Structure formats: structure tokens, C-alpha cells
């Protein structure tokens, strides 16, 4: 996979017996995933176009190009789907694709290095930046809010954080 692609969803097996798949969309507007095609596998060795057929409890049922049978749909379980970055909408200044945040260094407001963003998680309430680095035994989950993260500078590859007291070990 290249940096020119962003993960926008995942397939979670077959839906029914006619070759449809279960689709989880990671897009802000979930139905828009079908508009960003073709979508690629993580390795970039296969591409698909999608047609959403209906909303279901866990996301969507969809038709995928080249998939005609339940057995073929089952082989796609766990496949993550990536869209070309230039097919995605340009984000407002205060919004970021998760892929752009991973790897950024995190410094406190005094300039001390706290660590680097390993992952971006969301368990319902707000995004959390998983920060790892020297002196951090267990990853720290930094709330990705304007209060805790006042500055994100993609150009310099740096986040300035004002974390709640005691969140990070003393530097």
C-alpha cells in the first residue's frame, strides 16, 4: 500500500447466497464509500467497484465487481478497502485523515518530545491518539480534542499537545 491511498472500509464476509458482501464503511458519510472507487486491497494487487444494495445492521450489503457467489464473497472476509487519496474530498482545516496523523511526533507546549502517534482509535465518544515513545511503558491514549491537541502541523510532522495532568509520565 502507498501513502497515496486511505483505508475507507472493510469487507466482513458474505451477505446472503447470491454473492453480496457485508461492508463496513469508515467514511464520515458512510454511503459515499461507493463513490470513491475503484477501491484497492491493502497490497494494491486487486481493485473493486462497489454498488451498495441495502443498509444492514452492521453497515451495508453490497455487490462487488467480479464476485458472483457466496463462496467468492466469503473469501473477501477481512479485506480492508483503500481509496486513492485524490478521489476523497478535501477536508476542512481542522479535520484530518487518520492516516495523516499516524507517525507524527507529539510534543508538549514547552517543546518536550512526548512520543509519536502509533494509531488513531475511536471507541464512540471521540478520537484518541495512541502515543508511544521513550519513557512510556504502556501506550498513552490522548484525547484528540482542541483542548488536548491545540495544534496539528502536517507540514512539519508535529502535533503540539496540552494533555491532562498526569496522562504522560514526567519528562
Describe this structure in words.
The chain has 171 residues and is mainly β. Helices cover 5% and strands 41% of the residues. The strands form 2 sheets. The protein has a 7-stranded antiparallel beta sheet. A 6-stranded mixed beta sheet has the order 11-10-9-8-13-12. β10 and β11 (140-143) form a beta hairpin. The longest helix is centred in the middle third of the chain and has 5 residues, at 70-74. The radius of gyration is 19 Å and the shape is elongated. The model has no long low-confidence stretch (mean pLDDT 89).
Label this structure with key terms.
mainly beta, six-stranded mixed beta sheet, 41% strand, 171 residues, single chain, elongated, 2 helices, 13 strands
Topology:
Layout: E1 5-15, E2 20-25, E3 39-40, E4 47-48, E5 50-56, E6 59-64, H1 70-74, E7 80-84, H2 98-101, E8 105-108, E9 113-122, E10 127-132, E11 140-143, E12 151-153, E13 158-161
Parallel strand pairs: 8-13
Antiparallel strand pairs: 1-2, 1-7, 2-6, 3-4, 3-7, 5-6, 8-9, 9-10, 10-11, 12-13
In short:
By secondary structure, the chain is mainly beta.
How many DSSP H or I helices?
A: 2
Morphology call = elongated
Instruction: List the uncertain runs.
Output: none
Distance separating the two termini: 36 Å
Strand share of the residues? 35-45%
For the secondary structure, the number of strands is 13
Amino acid at each position: 500500500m502507498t501513502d497515496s491511498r486511505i483505508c475507507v472500509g472493510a469487507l466482513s464476509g458474505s451477505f446472503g447466497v447470491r454473492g453480496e458482501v457485508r461492508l463496513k464503511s469508515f467514511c464520515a458519510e458512510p454511503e459515499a464509500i461507493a463513490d470513491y472507487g475503484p477501491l484497492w486491497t491493502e497490497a494494491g494487487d486487486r481493485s473493486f467497484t462497489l454498488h451498495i444494495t441495502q443498509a444492514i445492521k452492521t453497515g451495508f450489503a453490497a455487490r462487488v465487481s467480479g464476485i458472483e457467489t457466496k463462496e467468492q464473497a466469503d473469501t473477501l472476509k477481512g479485506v480492508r478497502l483503500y481509496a486513492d487519496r485524490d478521489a476523497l474530498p478535501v477536508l476542512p482545516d481542522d479535520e484530518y485523515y487518520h492516516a495523516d496523523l499516524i507517525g507524527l511526533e507529539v510534543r508538549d507546549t514547552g517543546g518536550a518530545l512526548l512520543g509519536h502517534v502509533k494509531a488513531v482509535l475511536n471507541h464512540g465518544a471521540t478520537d484518541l491518539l495512541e502515543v508511544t515513545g521513550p519513557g512510556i511503558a504502556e501506550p498513552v491514549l490522548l484525547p484528540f480534542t482542541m483542548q488536548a491537541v491545540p495544534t496539528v502541523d502536517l507540514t512539519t510532522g508535529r502535533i503540539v499537545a496540552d494533555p491532562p495532568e498526569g496522562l504522560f509520565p514526567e519528562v
